[in-house]
Amino acid sequence: MKFEHQTKISAPQQSVFDWFERRGSFRRLMPPWEVAEEVRADENLKDGAQRVFRFPMGPIKMTWVAEHLGYEPPHKFEDVMKKGPFRSWHHVHRFEHDAGLTTVHDEVEYRLPLGPLGRLFGSRMVRKRLQRMFKARELRLIRDLERHAEFSHLARKRILISGSSGLIGTQLVAFLDTGGHEVWRLVRREVKQGENEIRWDPSNGTIDSAAIEGFDVVIHLGGAGIGDKRWTKKRKALIVESRRASTTLLAETLSNLQSKPDVFIVASAIGYYGDRGDEILSENSPSGEGFLTDTVLAWESYADPARAAGIRVINLRNGIVLSATGGALGRMLLPWKMGGGGRIGNGKQWMSWISMDDEIYAIHHLAMTEETEGAYNLTAPNPARQKVFAKTLGRVLWRPAIAPIPKISMRILFGELAGPLLFEGQNVQPNRLLDSGYKFEHEELEPALRDSLGLWK
Prior knowledge:
The structure is a single chain. The chain is an alpha/beta fold. It folds into two domains: 2-150, Alpha-D-Glucose-1,6-Bisphosphate, Chain A, domain 4, CATH 3.30.530; 158-453, Rossmann fold. It is 36% helix and 26% strand. The protein has 14 helices and 21 strands. Strands 11-10-9-8-12-13-15-19 form an eight-stranded mixed beta sheet, with helices on both faces. α4 packs across α9 and α10 (386-397) crosses α14.
């Protein structure tokens, strides 16, 4: 069987080939609805280099081992499946440039397992899956190259990231890597030999300050997940302390370096504004009340030592980041696919959301734009009421949105967390981000959901 796909890009052939050569391209090319774990990846696409990853197939995890061959930069490279779900798989990537456009030709020859039986029952399903996958690859490739091109006149940066294995960090590291930046990770475990990793231990206040000299950008995405577990007294204390210990340690260490970074970017949240009903909120709006507000106010202040040392500090007030593999949307999908979706409570509460790609691109934009500093709302310009969000998700999934979820059941399930997570809301606008020149990939909810789920019209 054979599958072919073409992607046309307004970029030089060498730039497109270089993007594929970067290690992060694997993560960026993975469909955003696929949960894949990278086990091992060689540093290049030369003959004999391998990439090994695992992905779920029903209740089990399948391992795929891909080996590269046919390396002819910047014209071609190939990969074959050495181990995986297909009987055979051979993927040829060809790059051609003409009239200002680079065309990436993907040619895949594959055979399904189980012989005639596999072809009878699986061929249509596999082809449909390939069409979705390569459509997602096309969109990511074009968008990533366009975003990198915006700052191609600037020198590549040396970037340090904490929280790099999280939902946002995983994609951010991959995107920055494909742009040619030198990306390092702050990790709490033992560092892996040959990897760009630096160990730290915020709970014990330890970090090797000499190892973090000379970075241009430091991005801190760490902290115990606010919505990951039911709030208990112990959990709330952990949420606060994990942010205090890690942000303070980084800010104080950076402030004492000989070669300080140009910018220190710290994750924050729109919980800063509290439950505000229909009030339209900008970065100039006053803070609200409650545990989340108090947490965010303190969280943003922990970066003060870096500010005092003259480092440009940016606080990212994140809204709901749309991802099919985690976060709020990821947790919604199973009940929705089973037909159990609908509004929560009266559904009038506002949901301020942002697509994963806009989250990543906005962080990159703020890091590369020297004039940016202070708090920025990372939310799309068109928030939605919860009942509209539910109706839109139902339409995208082709599922009914008629099963209202009563507040009492959510309070039993989530406890105190149910209020700020599900019933309270904020109509948050990204005024400062727009004023800085950022252009959103997804301004409207439905296209953002369709991109996240691979369910385009």
